[in-house]
């Protein structure tokens, strides 16, 4: 019989084990190895079987066992020491506490958070990145508050049927079985967040609270009796449904999220956020809720917009236009014509998301466009992706060169304590006396080649064991009690060069590029002297049959009896699998269509464990590849079409494996060690570990974006928002007057036959129309000029006002040093100038000489 309802009865721990309960309640256990080992001691078999989930473990463990542990002095003392360590971690000053004037709090919004495999609230890279962001923020002492949704079913569980076809199931998650608590008012009633909907309806949500180390994470959940069945389903699953369902999720995340923070602040009495960071466009409505609040304080929409922009950061994650949420205008109109956002006019909302540029669709509302208009600061997630984003969104700043579009980049990083295998941590701790793998001296003689290679082999073996268990379990699921075939016990070999490849399966990631020349791949896999083995995993979007067909093609290829020990597709890629997969591979393969991989983080996680990367020069690899940390697959940009490009890139990949990677891996000395390969490992660990760590990323966000945003926010709200009112009025005046401004005439002199070291004198006469000299910056823009007169290596030099007579053009002048020989070109550019602008391109207004 099936149960009609299922819930988890929380264990009551013996009083002497209270520390164990406290440790389970804070998600620091997801990355704190000593705490994980304590849970393992509770019941090692169940700990494994339950996927390292302490709440489930404590729920299922035999009460007699708990009594036994409560009587065990050592165990109790260890638990208490760990709890004391946790309390110290939560309270002690860390990196951030050494900064001056840093924001009192930062709110971080994301539609998904990947923190631990026991909490499946993520689908892939975006969510794992958000989880890593919270964890590093906690480690650095950054006062972040995370905001997301609680999904009843999370992302799907993947199985592969006999024909190689992906099947999805959506196991329901019981909130009572997770380390979280309902947010309650002082009087104990549950906090309710309410959003007004069309037709007088309303959507209600409760708020869950998780402790991720020092960081609080709030998750909104509509599955409560106050809602109709349809509204209870709004948070049913991650990215469920299309149009309206998605819109409801995003309204809840953005608008509901800000309301949840307000409730949390009231209850906790802690400081309010000064900066709002939106991880991709899905949470963009948060800015509208803040505008509504400011309108209630007496500001106009446009004045409120200035305040919100000052303290908002928008991070874009996709260079693929199809990856951006767009809604029909009609839908937005319907939802925002209600009492949803008091004081906010629906036409102002529509204007923020309008694609009013060349090639835009006037009928849709674009969440990324709104995100950029609501944020004074924006970034992509690798240098290359920053550049691609400047190109992709450049039409919002017409007249500016791509390089001047105000979108910067912060390259992603990964949380080292989560993603470094405990065997590596143990090695560093034993030999170097530190737990900090990302700053350890991996070149040190204190770690011998033998020891390092032994750990690398152990991690490969761990992966082999795990892969066999997963394949056997998948077999049993499909075939019931029939025993798995014996070859499954010989699947993979812990001494063979192992290549890993795991990703979601959108087309640009090219899951099946490796199958381009099946005969060649077969030869690599079955080489008698230098064999290669492949471990592959990945989920296709449930609605993407094309992606499922790619998985099927790979699975069918891997079923060939001659190959099946050397190539395996592991179903259900998730955090638990990933933690064994990355460390167990010698080579991490990535072959996206450049430049469509915004950053890519799986290769980073592999590198932290000493795997070498083999990748197209895309995302992070484009800036970190240095010929010693792996191999670059050359991009066939000149290929005539996609098929030719695939062929060229696949062949380059086979060539690298055959002629460089396998020979180096199998080149052993008398001690059986691949010394050259080991050098590459040490180089990778010592140079990349600090760079790829999420601590580096979060520190960059703090210093380059959060701190300036908090400053801007403080300045603009001073004096009852006077600067915001002034800025708003100034922007309207400048926008209105801009068409009357032009560069009338430019003169230069001071160089007869120019030589290095000379100075060029420039005078620019600017017809200001209705504007004042103080409203503008006049700059010489100069650099190398190519044959088409396009400037490269561009620099700018401000010109100073020298005269301004009524009725005459204003004259600006200055000198430009000629510091480089060769062709030189310059132009004069006028942009709006105001102390509260973060960037000269901000208004999208520019005038140049012709
Ligand atoms: C890191 C990770 C990803 C993202 O990897 P990318 O290389 O950024 O695509 C996806 N899923 C899991 C389980 C991960 O650990």
UniProtKB/TrEMBL annotation:
The protein's matches in SUPFAM superfamilies, at most eight in alphabetical order, are given as: UDP-Glycosyltransferase/glycogen phosphorylase
Q: What is its EC number?
A: 2.4.1.1
Q: Per UniProt, which keywords does this protein have?
A: Allosteric enzyme, Carbohydrate metabolism, Glycosyltransferase, Pyridoxal phosphate, Transferase
Q: Does the keyword Glycosyltransferase apply?
A: yes
Name the chemical reaction catalysed here: [(1->4)-alpha-D-glucosyl](n) + phosphate = [(1->4)-alpha-D-glucosyl](n-1) + alpha-D-glucose 1-phosphate
- Which cofactors? pyridoxal 5'-phosphate
- Name a single GO biological process: carbohydrate metabolic process
* Superkingdom as given in the UniProt entry: Bacteria
The identity of this protein, by name, is glycogen phosphorylase
Give me the gene this protein comes from: glgP
């Amino acid at each position: 019989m099936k149960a009609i309802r299922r819930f988890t009865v929380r264990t009551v721990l013996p009083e002497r084990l209270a520390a164990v309960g406290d440790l389970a309640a804070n998600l620091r256990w997801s990355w704190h190895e000593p705490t994980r080992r304590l849970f393992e001691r509770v019941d090692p078999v169940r700990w494994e079987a339950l996927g390292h989930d302490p709440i489930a473990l404590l729920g299922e463990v035999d009460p007699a066992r708990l009594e036994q542990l409560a009587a065990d002095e050592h165990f109790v003392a260890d638990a208490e020491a760990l709890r004391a360590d946790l309390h110290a971690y939560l309270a002690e000053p860390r990196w951030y506490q050494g900064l001056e004037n840093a924001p009192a709090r930062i709110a971080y919004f994301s539609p998904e958070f990947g923190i631990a495999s026991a909490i499946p609230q993520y689908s892939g890279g975006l969510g794992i990145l958000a989880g890593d962001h919270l964890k590093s923020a906690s480690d650095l002492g950054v006062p972040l508050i995370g905001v997301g949704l609680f999904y009843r079913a999370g992302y799907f569980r993947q199985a592969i049927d006999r024909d190689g076809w992906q099947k999805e199931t959506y196991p329901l998650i019981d909130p009572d079985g997770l380390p979280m608590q309902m947010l309650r008012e002082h009087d104990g009633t549950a906090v309710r967040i309410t959003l007004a909907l069309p037709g007088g309806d309303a959507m209600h949500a409760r708020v869950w609270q998780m402790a991720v180390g020092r960081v609080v994470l709030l998750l909104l959940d509509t599955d409560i009796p106050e809602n109709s069945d349809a509204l209870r389903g709004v948070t049913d699953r991650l990215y469920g449904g299309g149009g309206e369902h998605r819109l409801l999720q995003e309204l809840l995340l953005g608008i509901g999220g800000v309301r949840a923070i307000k409730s949390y602040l009231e209850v906790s009495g802690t400081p309010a956020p000064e900066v709002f960071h939106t991880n991709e466009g899905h949470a963009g409505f948060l800015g509208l809720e803040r505008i509504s609040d400011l309108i209630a304080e007496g500001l106009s929409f446009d004045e409120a917009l200035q305040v919100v922009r000052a303290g908002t950061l928008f991070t874009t994650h996709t260079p693929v236009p199809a990856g951006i949420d767009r809604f029909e205008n009609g839908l937005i109109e319907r939802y925002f014509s209600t009492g949803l956002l008091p004081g906010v006019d629906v036409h102002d909302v529509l204007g923020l998301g309008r694609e009013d540029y060349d090639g835009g669709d006037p009928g849709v509302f674009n969440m990324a466009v709104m995100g950029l208009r609501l944020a004074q600061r924006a970034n992509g997630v690798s240098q290359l992706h920053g550049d691609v984003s400047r190109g992709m969104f450049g039409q919002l700043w017409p007249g500016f060169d791509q390089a001047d579009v105000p979108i910067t980049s912060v390259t992603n990083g990964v949380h080292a304590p989560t993603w470094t295998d405990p065997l590596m941590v143990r090695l560093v701790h034993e030999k170097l006396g530190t737990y900090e793998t990302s700053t350890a001296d991996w070149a040190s003689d204190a770690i011998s080649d033998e020891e390092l290679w032994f750990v690398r082999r152990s991690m490969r073996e761990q992966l082999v064991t795990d892969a066999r268990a997963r394949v056997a379990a998948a077999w049993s699921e499909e075939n019931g009690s029939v025993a798995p075939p014996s070859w499954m016990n010989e699947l993979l070999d812990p001494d063979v060069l192992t290549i890993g490849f795991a990703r979601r399966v959108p087309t640009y990631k090219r899951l099946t590029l490796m199958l381009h020349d099946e005969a060649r791949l077969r030869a690599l896999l079955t080489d008698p002297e230098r064999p290669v083995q492949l471990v592959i995993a990945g989920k296709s979007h449930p609605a993407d049959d094309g992606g499922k067909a790619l998985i099927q093609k790979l699975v069918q290829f891997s079923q060939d009896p001659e190959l099946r020990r050397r190539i395996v597709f592991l179903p259900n890629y998730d955090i638990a699998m990933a933690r064994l997969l990355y460390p167990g591979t010698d080579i991490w393969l990535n072959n996206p269509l450049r430049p469509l991989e915004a950053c890519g983080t799986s290769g980073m996680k592999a590198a932290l464990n000493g795997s070498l990367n083999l990748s197209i020069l895309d995302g992070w690899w484009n800036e970190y590849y240095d010929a010693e940390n792996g191999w670059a697959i050359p991009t066939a940009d000149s290929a005539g079409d996609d098929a030719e490009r695939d062929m060229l890139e696949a062949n380059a990949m086979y060539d690298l494996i055959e002629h460089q990677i396998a020979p180096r891996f199998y080149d052993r000395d008398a001690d059986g060690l691949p010394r050259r390969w080991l050098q590459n490992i040490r180089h990778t660990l010592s140079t990349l570990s600090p760079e790829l760590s999420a601590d580096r990323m979060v520190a960059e966000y703090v210093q380059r974006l959060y701190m300036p945003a908090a400053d801007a926010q403080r300045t603009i709200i001073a004096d009852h928002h006077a600067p915001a009112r002034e800025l708003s009025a100034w922007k309207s005046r400048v926008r209105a007057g801009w068409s009357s401004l032009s560069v009338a005439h430019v003169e230069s002199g001071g160089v007869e036959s120019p030589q290095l070291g000379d100075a060029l004198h420039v005078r620019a006469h600017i017809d200001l129309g209705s504007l004042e000299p103080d409203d503008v910056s006049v700059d010489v823009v100069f650099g190398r000029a190519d044959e088409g007169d396009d400037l490269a290596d561009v620099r700018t030099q401000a010109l100073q006002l020298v005269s301004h007579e009524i009725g005459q053009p204003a004259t600006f002048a200055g000198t430009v040093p000629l510091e480089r020989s060769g062709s030189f070109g310059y132009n004069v550019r006028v942009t709006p100038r105001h102390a509260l602008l973060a960037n000269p391109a901000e208004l999208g207004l520019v005038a140049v000489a012709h």
